[in-house]
């Protein structure tokens, strides 16, 4: 894997990404970390529950009681509102899942004319998200809009299981529980190649840029290490908050991950929940209320709702866009498959990046071995860039460092001992 490259002349893309990350992900306070060679949760981050209240209250005083203009808008409505021309594609994967993808073909703010096909950027969301989550910010801070303004063609994905991509050639996502028998593994080996091939076919280009966030980065690593020819189709990959090795995860979400890591508990949860945790939109339909509606008063938005996000994902009051919070909470989370959580939980406990563990007997049928095989990330050769946040609870910096060390160790074999020590002293 190449960690630095200027071969493809994508300085404007890098500039847009850096600006986006500076606004959204660059956090300033030092995170408490467990040593990299120990697989255990980091100590909890400091949390100031009341410190930013006055700042937050000041920033939202003029919008109290007003519904955010984009709060209940779907991706096509948001794109139309801001005059970004787009096309909609329904892409069927090899295993029958039908994905909805939006292609932004131009920009109202760009007069740049292309003499040939535009360079395409495949933008892939994280867990509990959808194409909507790239449009949370105002136009000046919205990554897809900034890329379109810079002359790129932007393809917004909706992974299988999201409310935009519930179709299947033979299964009903509402009544057939087997529809939900997938994790980010299937997204990596089926969804990413299918969308990539469609982009290449439609744009008549040879390679694309890939931007992934969180679970979108997990899919990237799986796709490029498992699917033949994928590395040749990627001009460069940009990993925002990469999630691969999760031993140092210190969010309260870890408890849920670990609980579902055991295959019998995963099966029980799947039956109880029909395979998924429903989206915020479903609750809005059923209860006529969403997180965006609840977090509309100063007392809840400032000091309650914002701190809930800090607790789950990492604290930094200066990075919280309080005026956009109702719009964010009205759309997040989207559907979350139980198996996605279970798979992440297994990797959290094992300190590995490996395929799903069904237990020895079923593993023999699925993989030909009693244990699930690890993904070989050394097979990734496409130039790849990493962006991480110092205060990220789900993908803390030392998890990112583990990934880099494993990449740089190249063909050196790493054994994980009973204490989850990833790096024997002789290996570093």
Automatic annotation (TrEMBL):
SUPFAM superfamilies (alphabetical): alpha/beta-Hydrolases
Pfam families to which the protein is assigned, alphabetical: Abhydro_lipase
InterPro entries: AB_hydrolase_fold (IPR029058), AB_hydrolase_lipase (IPR006693)
UniProt domain Partial AB-hydrolase lipase: residue ranges: 76-135
Top-level taxon of origin: Eukaryota
Signal peptide residues on this chain, from the entry's feature table: 1-30
Record keywords, A-Z: Signal
PANTHER family, per database record: LYSOSOMAL ACID LIPASE-RELATED (PTHR11005)
Protein name as annotated: Partial AB-hydrolase lipase domain-containing protein
